[in-house]
Amino acid sequence: MEIAMTIDEKLFADYTRRRSKNLKEIVRKGILESIDWSTLKEPFDVQQYVHQSLLSLVSTHAQVSNISPALVPRVIASLVETFASELLHAFRKIPSFNMGGMLQATLEVEFLHQTLGGNVSKQAGDTLQSVYGTIEKAYVGTSGVDLELGKVKALLQRSRNSTKYIYSCFRSGRKGSKDGGGGKR
After folding, report:
1. Spatial distance between the Cα atoms of 102 and 137, rounded to a whole number of angstroms
2. Are 134 and 96 in contact (CB under 8 A)?
3. Above 50 in pLDDT, residue 173?
4. In a domain? residue 7
5. For position 16, which CATH number holds?
6. pTM (predicted TM-score)
7. Residues 6+ positions from 78 with CB-CB distance below 8 Å
8. Residue of 132, 140, 148 lying closest to 184 (CA atoms)
9. 75 with 16: CB under 8 angstroms?
């Protein structure tokens, strides 16, 4: 039994490492190369890197579901933790956010948080809270945020509605949630 567990751990680590590599590359490019967070006038929509990341997770979900449905929660939880860590790592490299950049970043993280919902472990949730804190600390501004939050909420709702079927596989991990909310802000 011990040998079987060792083999399981090695195979699991190898598989998740390979899947994580692609996810990390998407996140790094999307956050560090997509826009200038310090000059963005206003939030515009959830960026493509977010959707590419989620589609990578959907692909993994489908692949693992075909092989061993019982492994899906374990694999997805591990990848979501890696995903959250990579978000934190990348956003820490952004020196500053103006109001538009801060709201855009918050929109994207909240979209991810809500979409992944019950698949966000305590560790990943804590990491996402650190992402929010990192964005907040790097925000260089003082007022007007409340006026823009309505727009962010509208963009978030529109994005969630337009992608609810694409990312519906993540709903199975949710416990008792009808709307799939998982956000903290």
Report:
1. 10
2. no
3. no
4. yes
5. 1.10.357
6. 0.85
7. 12, 16
8. 132
9. yes
